[in-house]
Structure formats: C-alpha cells, structure tokens
Specification:
The structure holds four protein chains of four kinds. In chain A, 72% of the residues lie in helices and 3% in strands. Chain A has helices at residues 4-31, 37-54, 60-88, 93-122, 148-170, 172-182, 184-189, 194-220, 227-241, 247-272, 279-293, and strands spanning 129-130, 139-141, 144-146, 222-223. Chain A is globular and about 60 Å long. Chain B has two domains: 6-162 and 327-370, 3-Layer(aba) Sandwich (Rossmann fold); 165-301 and 384-411, Rossmann fold. In chain B, the strands form three sheets. In chain B, strands 7-6-8-9-10-13-14-15 form an eight-stranded mixed sheet, sandwiched between helices. Chain B has a five-stranded parallel sheet with strand order 2-1-3-4-5, sandwiched between helices. In chain B, helix 6 (192-207) links the parallel strand 6 (183-189) and strand 7. The N and C termini of chain B lie far apart (74 Å). Chain C has a domain at 16-251. The longest helix of chain C has 31 residues, at 89-119. Chain C is globular, with a radius of gyration of 22 Å. Chain D is an alpha/beta fold. Chain D has two domains: 1-81 and 170-253, P-loop containing nucleotide triphosphate hydrolases (Rossmann fold), CATH 3.40.50; 91-169, no CATH class. Helix content of chain D is 36%, strand content 25%. Chain D has nine helices and ten strands. Chain D has helices at residues 44-51, 74-80, 97-102, 119-139, 155-164, 185-202, 213-219, 237-242, 244-252, and strands spanning 4-15, 18-29, 33-37, 59-64, 67-68, 82-84, 173-177, 205-209, 222-227, 230-235. In chain D, the strands form two sheets. In chain D, strands 6-7-8-3-9-10 form a six-stranded mixed sheet, with helices on both faces. In chain D, strands 2-1-4-5 form a four-stranded antiparallel sheet, with helices on one face. Chain D starts with a strand and ends with a helix. In chain D, 47% of the residues are buried. The chains are: A mainly alpha, B alpha/beta, C mainly alpha, D alpha/beta. The interface between B and C is large, with 62 and 59 residues.
C-alpha cells in the first residue's frame, strides 16, 4: 500500500537528489568530465550542517550558506590547481576524470583525518553525527504531519533551481557558460574569458552540490564520512537519465529515481513480495530501461548501424 | 619530459627502497621476536596487529575501537609491569576500510612484519576473507565482533570473543515474550549478521508461542525512509504489536528517526539487539524522548553487574567523552587474551599461541565477563543485559535494567 | 629474506590480478576507445563461477550433499589433512584449470552479449550501462541463497594447498598467477600489433569513418569486449583461489575505477604501461600499508588516513606532471615496417 | 544512359516533417565523372548518406551493379565497392599515413580475431599490402610522408590521401564530398585533374559533390542539380549553367 509517508519521502528525497544532481549535469555538460569530487561536495555539505549543529549553531539557513561557500571554494580550488592545468595541456577528459578520482581519495581521507582531530576536541563521535538543526517548524495538515525539514527542503530547492535558471538564462555569465558548453573552442575565439567563466561555473556547481548535501543530511539525519559515497551511484543514475545534458530531464530523473526507491519498491513488495533489499537493483533496472528505450542523446550518439536489415533480393 | 620520467622513476624507486628499508628494519628489530634475554630488566616487546574499520561502512564504530585498542594495550602493559613480567606489547593498527581485500592485505602485511596475532577484522565477511591465509600461515585471528554462525568451525586459527547470535536471539525472544507481545515484525539487515539473527529469533519466538514476520532491508544504503514506510504498512497489515530491529548503529539510528515520525510505528513497541547500543545519535533529546515513551528495550551481551566492565566504561568515557560502542569490551578483553596467550605460549609462534589461547580463556575474567571458548573457538557462555534509554539527572542515557542469564529473565529496575 | 619472499608471494597474485584487469581494460579503452565502467561485473562472474564450480564438484567428490556455504561444506573441504582440498589434489588442480577456461568463456560471452544492446545508445553510455549491469549482478548475488547470498562462499584455498607446506603452495600459486599474467600480456601485445590492432585504433579515432571503410565496427567491438571480459573472468578465478572466499560486496563499482587509475597512470594504449600502472598502484598501496604499520599512532595525521591521502596525491601528481602516463601510447608494430624499408630501398 | 553503375530510383528521406530528399531519380554511368550540385541544404549530403547506408530511405530504391543496396549498413556498402570521402576529411590521427592506407583493404587475414595474434598467418599478406601502399603513395607524391602522422599533412594532401586510400581496394565507385573545399584554386584544379587521371587510367567512376562550380564544371561530364530535396535540372555542364531555374535557385537560395 502506498501511503502518505511514501509520497512525502519521494518528494523530500527527490528534491535533495535534484539539488545534488543538477550541478553534476551542469559541470559535466560544460567540461565533459565525470567529477568524482562531487562526492566530497555532498559529504562536505552534510558535515557542515552536522558540525555546526554540534557546536550550537543550529540555524539551517546559515548552514546552507556556509556549505555553499565551502563547496564552491573547494570546487574552484580543484579547477585552478588540477583541472585547468591538465586541460591547458590538452589532456583527455578521461585523464581529468582519473585525476578527480585521486582528488576524491585524498579529500575523503583528509575529512577522516580532520574528523579524527575534531573527535578529540569535541569529545564526541564525529564519525557519526545526528543532525541537530532548526528551520521551519513541523506543520500538521488534516492529520498528516509535514516535517519541518521537508519544508526547508522545498524552499531551499526552489530557491536553488530558480537561481540556477536565472543565472544560466538571464545573465551574461550564464550565457557564457552555455556558450562554452556548446563549443569550447568557438567560445574562446569569440572572446569569452574561459578561465574566469569556468571558475564561476565550478563555484556554482560545487556550492549547489554542497547545499544538496545539507538537504540530504536533513533527510538522512545521521551523517557519516561515507554519506556522499553511499548516494553517488543514485545521483549519477539521475544525471545519466538527464542525458548528462538537460537540466530539466535531470530534475525529472531525480523524481523517477526517488519514486522508484520509495513507491515502486513498496508496490512491488506488497504485490509480489519482492525483498526490500532489491531497492538498488530497481534503480539500476530503471536506468538501463531508460538508457535503452529512451536513449538520452537520441540516435546522434550511436553508430549508423542497423541490426535488422531489410532483406534485399538480387535482380 | 625526460625529467618527468626520471621523477616518476625516482618516486617508484624511492617507494621500493622505502619498502626494503622497512623490511630491513623489521628484520633488525625482529618483528618483536627479540631474542629472550637472560637479564631480568630486558623486556621483550611483542606486537599485536589490529585490522579495524577506520574508514568505510563501519568507520563510526571502528574509530572508537581504535581508541579501545590503544587503551587495552596500555592497560595490559601496566598489568605486566605490576606483575613484574618482562613482556610488553605494542599495538599496530591498520585500517581495512570495511573491505575484504584490505583486511586480507592487512593480515598479510602483519605476517610480513612478523606479527602472529591479529585482532579483528570486524565483519564476518572479512574474517572469511582472511581465514584461508591465516590458517595456512598460522596467524591467530581474534575477531571481537564476528557473529556469523557459518564461522563456527573447530580447530582453525579463527577465534571469536563473542557469543553466537543464536544465544542472543533466545534472550531477545524471551524479553519480547515477557512483555506480553504475541506478534512482531522482525526488521533486519540483509547481511549475514542480520539474516542469521532474524532466523534464530523467529525460531525461538515461535517456540515461545509468538508469531514473527520477517522483513529485510538492504544494509548498504544511505537512507532507509522508504524501508521504514514499507515496514509501517507491513506492521499495519499484519497487525503486529511490536517491531524487532536488527541493525548496526548508523542504519538503526536512521531507521528509528524515521519511525519516530510515522503514525503507526511511533505508537507501537520497539525492541532491538546489541547493534545500536551506545550510538550517540539515539541520545539526541528528540529521539530519546520518543524511545523513552515507547519503552524501547534491547538485549546486549555483557557480563551481569561486572565491576570490570564498569571500570572499563568509566575509563573509556574519561578518555573520549562517549559511551563505549558495541563490542568494545570484547575487543578490550581480546587484547588481554592475546597478551596472556603469548605469555603462556612462551614463544611468539602462531601454532603455540593458538593452542594456548583456549587455556588462557578458560581462566580469564574480564570486562566482558568469563571468556571461556567452545570447541569452535567461539565464546561459550554469554549473559545478556536488558538495556533501555532513560532520563538520568535530566540527561538521556543508556541504562541496563535487567539481565538474561541461564535461560531466565530478571529485571533489576522497573522499566 | 623470508619476509621478502612472504611479501612476494602475497603481492604477486594481487599484481597479477590487477595486471590482467588493467591490460583487459586497456584493450577496451586504450586501443578501442570503449569506456567500460563495469569491469568489476566480469571479475565477479569469474570469481563466483570458479568458487561455485570448485566447491560443488569437490563436495560431490567426497559425497557430501550440503549447501555450498554451510559449515559442513567448509569442513568437508578445508580441514587440514582430511578435507577434500587435501585428499583430491588432481581434482583441485583440474578444477582450477577448468575454472580458468570456463570463466574466460562465460564472462566473455556475457560481455559479448552486453555490447550489442548498448551500441544503439552510442559510446558515451556503454560504460554506464555496464556499470548498472554490474551493480544489478552484485545486488542479485547478495540475495541469491544457493550461492550463499550475503554469506558468500568460502572454504577454498590455493590449488596447491595439498602440498602441505604453505610457503611452497602459495609460492607456486604466485608463480602460476605471474605466468598467467605473462600469457595475457604476450597475447595482448600480439593481438594489438596486428592489422586488427590497427583497426582498433581506427575505431577509437573515428568509429563512423571506420564503418565507412568496411570495418564491421559492432562485431569488432563485441569481440574486443569478449576477450577483455574473458580476461577479467580469469582474474576473478585467481582472486577466488587467492583469497579462498568470494563475497558479493567485494565487487563494488569503485574497484573498476581503481583499475582505471592504473591504466591511466601507466599510459593508455600501451600494454606495458597498463602492467606498470598496476604494479605501481599495488606496490604503493602495499608499501604504504607496511609503512603505516611501522609508524605508530603518534603522527598529526593518523598514518592509516595519511596512507590513503598519499595514494590520492600520487595519482594527481603523476597525472599533473605526466598526463600521458608513465608509458605513452605506442604505435602499432606490424611487419609492414620492414616491407616498407625494402620497397623504399629498391628505388635507391 | 548506357551501363549505369549506380541507379537511384525515386529516393525520399524524411526527418520528421522535413523532407530532405523527395523523390530523386538519377543514375551514374560506369566510368563517368558526374557532378552533384545544389545550394546549401538541398539534400546532397543526405543523398550520399542514403547511398552509403547511413540512412535507410523513407521511400525508393538504390541499385549498384545490379544489386539493391539501400538499407545495407555502411560497411556492407563499402564491401560492394563504393568508397566515400567526407566534407571534413576523416582520417585517423593516431595512425600514420601508411597505416591509414593499410587500413582500407577489406577482409585482411590479420583482422580476424583468432588469427590476429598469430603473425605467421598474415605476415605475407601484410607485406604485400605494405609494398602496394608504398608504391601508391609514391605514385601520388606522398612518398616523403609514409611514416608521417596525419596531422603533419597539408589540407590538400589530406584530401588526396582520403581519395587514394580507396585505390588499395578494388572499389568501383567513388563518392567525393566537396574534394576541393578549403583548398586553394590551383590545388583544387590539380585535385580534379588528378581525379580525371584516375578515371582515365584506372577506369573508376566518380560521383562528386562540389560547391566550387568554376572548378567542377571544367572536369565533369554530367551534372545533377538538387534543390530542396528534388532534382531541379540535369545535363552537360554548359547546359546546366545556362539553366534559368538553376541560376534562380543559386541566387535565390
């Protein structure tokens, strides 16, 4: 039976997924790099809200602001220190991908090391922190309690996606980002300061991903250093459903995945007794079906090759 | 270009030389096998290896275990000193990232460093991964937390300082039955620990005349909201009176924090095993208040009213500011077992230590109680305490309110 | 000396496993340009196949009819001296060899079949599709009771355990693993230094143009996928016999990306580079594990975390200072060279 | 027209609502050098794509040497003996000039997966092909670039290389897509006279898309004009340039 809680969960999870996946699609579209540091942005955001809560700063909006700045700064740092020099050298995107893999390993264990020190200072287990923060109060509507964190998530994700839309569509720098996404070389020839625009783009995507991390922490409530690793495959699936290209499709993908993880599994469990542990299986099944039946890039991505050839007879 | 090639060549060369120096150094210090000196003052230092999950899925517990490990070795050395015994021990802790491959790599590294006794790894799957290497290379493995029934194998190098889940399942079934509950949903991790526990519980609970419905969840997920939602509808459709939660700490805390907001699940009783005992998340006021209101209860393996455990707990809290996590007293005692077994064996040799360990355990009484081992090298006797979360002096705390010993349940405090 | 031998016999099989994996990935990405993000799936197929095959046949040899993952099975197999692994040496070695062959064929066949539906989607999504397939396989294995679900399968050992002496049996296994790696390397080298290798490079550069030059691109790609997946299956067999157990959660996607790091560190499109990449990566990892054990807890950064941070930094720094990897791509070498020299020389 | 090697019969290709080709019928005689012109977007490249198997025509048939070839895949079309070049040359940058040429012969023994690792099986053929390739490269003035990488070649050489690659095989029909684009006038003329030489010496057939009419008209013997997916005119070059409709299409388009 699909109840209210499944639907509320779908919404909250879907929105958090969306905020995390949108910048992944954006940065992939502009740079064609599968960026592993995205995992760190999520973890960083989640820990920002968790640790601020531990030291008594319990306003969720301050946490989101701080996460945005931290995530953005980290992303710019990566770009300036690693991605851009590699790109200037004409490295393949796969090489940049593996460099980001290295960065991810480095940052992940740096976070572990920092948390290890904070453990001693704060005298509490920093490797597993319950989120304690305050945003909107919970609301009761006709017998249904709507969690305050859900309202925070809705507000924050609306702000983020609206801001992203406005920046990309209405500002000069947004146009520059889109120009670079369409054609790097042409954009540079036409006088767009590629370096600065890319830094801005990275700041935006790192920051938004970290805000997504905060939202995810509000949903999951327990924060560990593995939080980003645990959801990255789902986030990646969402971005792929969006074709790694369309922000709108990515947003739709977020709700497809979240609906699969909440509603579809519940229905299948009730109807056919499918074990709940098949949840990740379903996500990837959906991903495969979407990829194969509704190819994200259309026929343009494929070979001009047909397996079913119309039979031809000799004259 | 040529410079870069050279740089990388040097880097690799450096690493290889570094490794070689490492071996040299071990050979020089003899990996702890310093020749026994006749002089009284000359003490021998033995190394004990620890393969702990300092990162990965179990890192939230593993990090605390690391502190227990150092504390235990420290205490062991103090004990040796107070007995004027010429033996000292040194902890070598390696991270296994909660993966099988790294656990095996760690045990191999210990073997190369001449270390014959390894405490850990944590998960049963990791113990299985190192078993074949440990058996053929005579490395004694003492896992503080592996409870998988499939590892109950006699005459191997794997020892487990924890009671089998079968025993605890019996205790938990008795507790749930005692509370007058006839029908439960068992909500369990889909890993080996959860599956075995749930099966045992079902068997024991139905022997007591109850009814148990099994429901598993994927343990490697980040969030369990949808699982909790399914649990809610299951509880409703089955008309169950309680949920028995078989989880670890992070997943359990997550599940409970979602259940708190569920209209069905927040109204019924909850029971649990030892997996989430000690998790600080449960003590957050909002969650703890709810848990208190529904009389949340759990079982956990412990020696009843054991002063050594109280002492250990106090010491750990002073050191870290947190409650000792699950299995930490087992780990603490495992260090002592290892130490005394080495002393008893009289030589730092895997086979001798393996043979000495059950003898030592027979007479060892530690923070986790009496450590006697059965023929499989697993802990033979285990008593359980009943725990709950209560307000003590305005603060929520884990409190033991009863015991399960020798098949009977006694409450020491009113729940 | 003993510890160096101990190091070698524990490192060589791991090196061989990752060496085979990275050579196979290099065939796909370095030569043919197929980004495979799901290598681990074929590795898992090989590992599970060999474990299930060996355990079930060994059990039936000693007349035990128990589930493959049960304690009885483990005891019947591996009790020192009396277990089936010790009493049926010929069968054990035979099953090891049979596993290698079957794993190559089965993993290869699965790989072959998987490429066909994904060709419709274009090269960008091949990797993701295989990644999704691998995760589905893993989740399925976690829930598939006959092969142990989350309990996994264990009780195996290396195929020479009946020799009695652990140093000897493990050493022999290390040599066999190294031999397999060498065979795979030689095969891959000969495979790419041929007219087919030229075609692979062409497909990597521009698959549409290659198709217009009469190359049956889908079939060539599927063939390369067959061979590379089969190699990964062989690596999986080695893993089973090396570790003596198979657990579903060993085969997580990140393992694939470690292999990617090895290939790119070593240099794409160069088999020797892939080999070196695997060697450097596993060696750095082992050396740092060793060092972390020696360092003790006194550092500002705990050595266990420092060790991983160094691994990450090494990857980044090597790529920063040498983006083409340790060994840059090598041209295809066929006898055409010599023929050209003769022909050019003729004119004087 | 006597002995047509290629016949296109009423071919149409729609992309959604766009009619890229709308009932084109034409034929190319064996040994001919035929031009295909038309304003941008008139469907010239689409027609080539249909002939070479990139697209399946929505309607109509394509016949080559008495065989129906529409609906075949590009590689199968190639094996029938049709070689095409691209508007933007598509050589393989990670292969040398020699290797680019060696790639083209179909059915090489060393390309079979089972035989590839066994050098003795294909060494003889490979040597023969290499000698043939060198002779070919020398003959067309690329002898100095045998081991050069493609990126070292000039634009004209790249066009040349793309065309002569086909000579390694027994291809009969060449579809050239703007061979003179991006090449200086003198070079373009040289290019075309080279094509004509090939036609005369080797008996090959050429079907050429070209924008630069001033060069094209000098060399071809027959021209088809496409406009909005339909055949607008056809005839000898000097007839076509006089055609009012053509002039209008070019000026108006």
């Amino acid at each position: 039976m699909v109840g209210v809680s499944e639907i509320l969960n779908t919404v909250q999870m879907g929105l958090a997924y969306m905020v995390i996946a949108l910048p992944l699609t954006l940065s992939y579209r502009v740079t064609q790099v599968i960026n592993f540091v995205h995992i760190i942005f999520i973890t960083l955001g989640a820990y920002t809200v968790a640790l601020l809560g531990l030291v008594g700063l319990t306003n969720v909006w301050i946490a989101m602001g701080a996460a945005f700045l931290l995530g953005g700064a980290l992303a710019v740092l990566d770009n300036v220190a690693v991605f851009e020099p590699l790109w200037r050298r004409g490295s393949d995107v796969l090489i940049i991908m593996v460099a980001s893999l290295g960065l991810w390993i480095f940052y992940k264990y740096l976070i572990y090391a920092v948390l290890d020190k904070l453990f001693i200072v704060l005298r509490t287990n920093t490797l597993s922190v319950l989120v304690h923060t305050e945003g909107f109060p919970s609301v009761s509507l006709g017998g249904i309690t709507i969690d305050g964190y859900l309202i925070d998530t809705v507000v924050a994700s609306v702000i983020v996606s609206l801001a992203l839309y406005l920046i990309l569509m209405r500002t000069r720098i947004g146009k520059a980002i889109r120009a670079i996404a369409d054609n790097q070389v042409l954009a540079e020839i036409s006088g767009i300061p590629r370096g600065r625009v890319l830094n801005f783009m990275w700041f935006l995507s790192g920051g938004i991903a970290a805000v997504g991390g905060v939202l995810w922490a509000l949903f999951q409530t327990t924060v560990t250093p593995e939080i980003g690793d645990q959801i990255i495959l789902q986030v990646f699936s969402i971005a792929v459903i969006g074709g790694l290209y369309s922000l709108t499709k990515t947003a739709i993908g977020a709700f497809i995945v979240s609906g699969t993880e909440n509603i579809v599994i519940a229905v299948l469990h009730d109807a056919f007794g499918l074990p709940l542990s098949f949840r990740p299986f379903l996500v990837f099944l959906v991903l495969l079906v979407v990829i194969l039946i509704w190819p994200p890039l259309g026929a343009g991505g494929g070979l001009p090759y047909r397996f079913r050839v119309r039979h031809r007879s000799r004259r | 270009m040529a410079l870069d090639t050279k740089a990388i060549g040097l880097l690799i060369l450096g690493l290889i030389i570094g490794a070689a120096i490492g071996y040299g150094a071990t050979a020089f210090t003899g990996g702890g096998q310093a020749t026994t000196q006749e002089e009284e003052q000359k003490t021998v230092t033995y190394k004990i290896g620890f393969s702990l999950p300092l990162s990965g899925q179990l890192s939230s517990i593993g990090k605390l275990w690391e502190k227990v490990a150092y504390m235990a070795v420290d205490d062991l050395n103090k004990m040796m000193e107070s007995y004027h015994l010429p033996y000292r021990f040194e902890a070598v802790v390696l991270d296994d990232g909660t993966t099988e491959e790294k656990a095996l790599q760690n045990v191999q590294t210990f073997a190369q460093q001449g270390i014959k006794v390894v405490i850990g790894p944590a998960a049963s799957s990791q113990v299985k991964a190192v078993k074949s290497f440990a058996d053929s290379n005579h490395i004694v493995i003492i896992s503080p937390s592996s409870t998988a029934p499939t590892l109950a194998i006699p005459n191997d190098y794997i020892f487990r300082n924890t009671g089998s889940d079968a025993l605890q399942a019996k205790a938990l079934a008795a507790l749930v039955n005692h509370e007058g509950i006839k029908k439960v949903v068992v909500f369990y991790r889909d890993d080996e620990y959860g599956t075995a526990f749930a099966d045992f519980f079902k068997r024991e609970f139905e022997a007591l005349g109850g009814q148990a419905v099994l429901l598993s969840y994927a343990s490697n997920l980040a969030d369990f909201a949808s699982e909790v939602a399914s649990l809610s509808s299951k509880v409703q459709s089955e008309g169950a009176e309680a949920v028995v939660l078989i989880s670890f700490d992070t997943d359990g805390a997550n599940i409970l924090s979602h259940a708190k907001d569920d209209p069905v699940l927040s109204q019924i009783r909850w029971f649990s095993g030892e997996g989430i005992h000690g998790a600080s998340e449960l003590l957050q006021p909002s969650l703890a208040e709810w848990l208190d209101s529904i009389d949340f209860m759990g079982t956990r393996p412990v020696f009843i009213s054991n002063p050594l455990y109280e002492e250990f707990k106090k010491k750990f809290e002073e050191l870290t500011g947190t409650d000792p996590p699950v299995f930490s007293e087992k780990l603490y005692d495992a260090v002592f077992l290892a130490g005394w077994a080495i002393v008893r064996a009289g030589t730092y040799d895997g086979e001798a230590i393996k043979n000495a360990l059950p003898e030592v355990a027979k007479h060892f009484y530690g923070a986790s109680g009496w450590c006697i081992l059965d023929e499989n090298g697993d802990r033979a006797f285990q008593d359980y305490s009943i725990w709950t979360i209560k307000q003590v002096d305005g603060e929520y705390k884990y409190v033991d309110i009863g015991t399960y010993s020798g098949g009977s349940l006694t409450f020491t405090e009113n729940p | 000396m003993e510890s160096i031998i101990g190091f070698l016999i524990s490192w060589l099989p791991i090196f061989a496993i990752y060496g085979i994996l990275s050579i196979s990935l290099n065939l796909e990405i370095g030569y043919t340009g197929m980004a495979n993000f799901g290598k681990v799936a074929f590795y898992a197929i090989g590992a599970y196949l060999s474990a299930a095959l060996t355990i079930s046949v060994m059990l039936s040899l000693v007349g035990k009819n128990v589930p493959l993952y049960s304690i009885e099975a483990v005891q019947a197999l591996s009790t020192e001296g009396t277990g089936a692994l010790y009493t049926h040496p010929a069968a054990l070695v035979g099953l090891f060899v049979l596993s290698l062959v079957l794993a190559f064929l089965v993993a290869g066949a699965v790989g072959y079949l998987i490429t066909y539906p994904t060709l419709r989607v274009g090269p960008a999504f091949l990797g993701i599709t295989v990644l999704a397939f691998g995760e589905m396989f893993r989740v399925f294995m976690r829930n598939y009771e006959p092969l142990g679900s989350t309990k996994g399968l264990f009780g195996l050992n290396n195929p020479f355990v009946w020799l009695g002496n652990s140093l000897l049996s493990q050493g022999l296994f290390a040599l066999v693993a190294l031999g397999l790696l060498l065979a795979v390397y030689v095969y891959a080298e000969r495979f790419v230094n041929s007219p087919l290798g030229r075609t692979l490079r062409a497909i990597k550069d521009d698959e549409v143009a290659a198709l217009c030059l009469g190359k049956h691109v889908p079939r060539v790609k599927a063939t390369v996928f067959f061979i590379a997946s089969g190699m990964a299956g062989v690596a999986g067999v080695l893993w089973t016999f090396y570790q003596g157990s198979v657990q579903p959660d060993t085969f997580v996607p990140i393992l694939t990306f470690y292999v990617w790091a090895m290939v790119i560190l070593g240099g794409m499109g160069n088999n020797l580079g892939a080999l070196l990449g695997a060697a450097v990566f596993t060696l750095v990892d082992r050396a740092l594990t060793f060092a972390a054990g020696m360092m003790g807890p006194s550092l500002i950064i705990p050595p266990n975390y420092l060790r991983w941070m160094i691994v990450g930094l090494v990857i980044v720094l090597v790529l920063m200072f040498r983006p083409e990897g340790i060994k840059p791509a090598r041209p295809i070498k066929t006898p055409a060279w010599e023929a050209v020299k003769e022909e050019v020389g003729k004119d004087g | 027209m006597a002995d047509p090697i290629l016949e296109v019969k009423d071919v149409a290709k729609y992309f959604g609502g766009v009619k890229a080709l709308d009932g084109v019928t034409l034929s190319v005689p064996r040994g001919g050098m035929i031009g295909l012109i038309g304003p941008n977007g008139s469907g010239k490249t689409t027609l080539f794509n249909v002939i070479t198997g990139f697209y399946v025509p929505t309607r109509g048939e394509v016949w080559f040497e008495g065989e129906r070839i529409d609906g075949l895949n590009p590689n199968e079309v190639y094996l029938k003996g049709i070689v095409r070049t691209f508007q933007i040359p598509r050589l393989f940058p990670s292969l040398t000039v020699l290797e680019n040429v060696l790639l083209t012969p179909p059915n090489q023994i060393g390309e079979r997966p089972l035989y590839a690792p066994i050098r003795s099986k294909w060494e003889k053929q490979e040597r023969e092909l290499a000698r043939k390739a060198v002779r070919l490269l020398k003959r067309f003035g690329l002898g100095d670039y045998i081991h050069a990488s493609v990126s070292e070649l000039s634009a004209a050489h790249i066009k040349l290389l793309e065309t002569i690659r086909g000579l390694m095989t027994d291809a009969k029909l060449y579809l050239l897509d703007e061979p003179a684009a991006g090449v200086a006038y003198d070079m373009a003329k040289e290019m075309f006279s080279f094509v004509r030489r090939l036609r005369d010496e080797e008996g090959l057939t050429f079907f050429i898309i070209e924008h630069r009419l001033e060069v094209l008209m000098e060399f071809v013997d027959y021209v088809y004009v496409l406009h909005n997916g339909k055949l607008l005119a056809e005839g000898k070059p000097d007839e076509v340039v006089q055609n009012k409709a053509v002039i209008e299409a070019y000026l108006g388009g």
